[in-house]
Write a structure and sequence with these properties.
globular, alpha/beta, TIM Barrel, 9-stranded mixed beta sheet, 29% helix
Length: 410
Amino acid sequence: MNTTPPTIGGVTIDEICNLSGTPVYVYDADVIARNVRRLHAAFASIPARFMYAVKALSNTAILQLMKQLGTGLDTVSIQEVHRGLRAGFEPREILFTPNMIAFDEIREAVQLGIHINIDTISVLERFGHEFGNTVPVCIRINPHIMAGGNERISTGHIDSKFGISIHQMRHVLRVVASQGMHINGLHMHTGSDILDADVFLQGAEMLFEIAENFPDLEFVDFGSGFKVAYKPDDIATDIEDLAAKLSERVIMFNSGRERPVEVWFEPGKFLVSESGTLLARVNVLKQTTATVFAGVDTGLNHLIRPMLYNAYHHISNVSNPTGTPRVYTVVGYICETDTFGWDRKIAEIREGDILAFANAGAYGMTMASNYNSRLRPAEVLVYNGKASLIRRRETLDDVLSTEIEIDLAP
């Protein structure tokens, strides 16, 4: 029987929970570093740049780690831009790809010196009218490629709100010419959980064809969407196969150009998902006529992916890992049906045990809320074998701090 205490990055679960309490998000820096190095190695034959998607996990310590590992940042709001700058990134290391925002955010990003990516013709026209050729800009194309593991994370199809339709390129070219604009990049993102390298190759052919219209192009950005394994038997994107096939096409494209273009990617989930674990304590065991519920001290207010995307997260009992497996339905403490997993076979659960939700590094804490006036959890980073608190647990005073009392006396 294995009696070694369960660990994350070499630190025991008990030590982490004593530091932060539960629930808590825990991130293993070694896993993040390994994934960054894997991308750099796979695409070593071409001028590739990796812009970490901040929306996946935006804690400042994580951004500082990404800076140390040599990534840039992909941001989708001016607030994420400022997060990146505060974390030590240079403006030239940040790409701003907003959608449906007020033009003031774009204007502010220009003033900060950030790379701008525009996905609407009317916004492109306004940008050209205001800045002409004085500020380079990237154009986001919608390739009308249906890809992604869930309709809510598929962004390149014909009904998507993202990007300028590839069928509108003649209009785009007229806008660019009439305003004398400097186009320095072309961008596309088809969605998440993409397995087939041919999706990227199909998009590459489109972008390379469009690129012939822009002699000053500096980069083409393929977004990301690399699939990670959530279930034990899940299939993930074969990064090395994708890199080999796409790199061959990039080398061919660049061979005919006076100035080779860089190839950018925007990995988020791929870099941080596997690094993250959500630890939660079992509050209640409840048996009904049909089900044994294990109720934990977290809910959809902390990890909404299973409820929003029907996402699977492997759940294990780290307090009793050698216990006899039994079937449980793991649920949260929110006044909604916040079910993390139906009929899961898990080592026998006792009240007070700690359950670990795997692959919780991406779109976990960044999508957390104060629903039911619950407090958002702490975050811990395990780096070089040491666990450090990188976000303290919220208090009710934190939650109420922006509310303003008024006199309601009759």
